[in-house]
Amino acid sequence: MKHFIKAILFIILIQSISYAQTTHKGTVLETLQVENYTYVRINENNKDIWIAIPKLDVKPGNTIETSAGIIMKDFNSPTLKRTFTEIIFATKASVLDSKEQSKNTTTSKVPGIFNVSKIIKNASDLKGNIITFNGKVTKVTPKIMGKNWVHFSDINANTDLVVTTQEELKVGDIVTMEGKVETNKNLGAGYFFYVIIEEAKIVEK
After folding, report:
1. Which CATH class for the 2-101 domain?
2. What is d(CA 17, CA 162) in angstroms, rounded to the nearest whole number?
3. What CATH number is given for 107-204 in this structure?
4. Which of 3, 4, 50, 161 is the most buried (most CB within 10 A)?
5. Is the pTM higher than 0.90?
6. What is the domain partition of the chain in residue ranges?
7. Cα–Cα distances in Å, from 162 out to 81, 87, 173?
8. Are strands 130-144 and 47-54 parallel, antiparallel or unpaired?
9. pLDDT for 29-73, tens place per residue?
10. Distances from the Cα of 9 to the Cαs of 111, 151, 155, in angstroms?
């Protein structure tokens, strides 16, 4: 949030601005994630608008509401290498349908223990479910976006699966864990995962 507010203050100093007088609410059509904030293109009253908000886990199809903000004309983003004809910088945003979606979506635990190859092969069927899996740790990137990013391989095969976790693991560990399978995860900045396991916890080490 601090980085986002600083970015807005910097923009105020270097470009002419006007102010959005009302909040904004609409269906998300597109998202672009950068380090400290999220760009969203929403449909509001049959009009497409771009809004930049503090970092938020939001996906196309979600409904969001933002605070009033600063309207920027011809704003150039060096990170995205893109110029927006008009974009609103808002300091607050929330996903309105996340609670409702959680009521209507059930997450089940799939029986059995999966290896990396089986997870990748059956990713579309496993999406949204919690599974138990095992493998060998081949790479660890700690403390990125509040998570440890761990690469797993089958014990006797050259495969690769990314897992996010709060567990402390090291290269060479062979562990059994539980986590939720997600597919087609786009984090922006070129980071796209066909399949990823999130919020994994150790079952056996």
Report:
1. mainly beta
2. 42
3. 2.40.50.140
4. 161
5. no
6. 2-101, 107-204
7. 28, 34, 15
8. unpaired
9. 999 998 878 999 999 988 999 999 888 888 999 999 988 778 888
10. 52, 38, 51
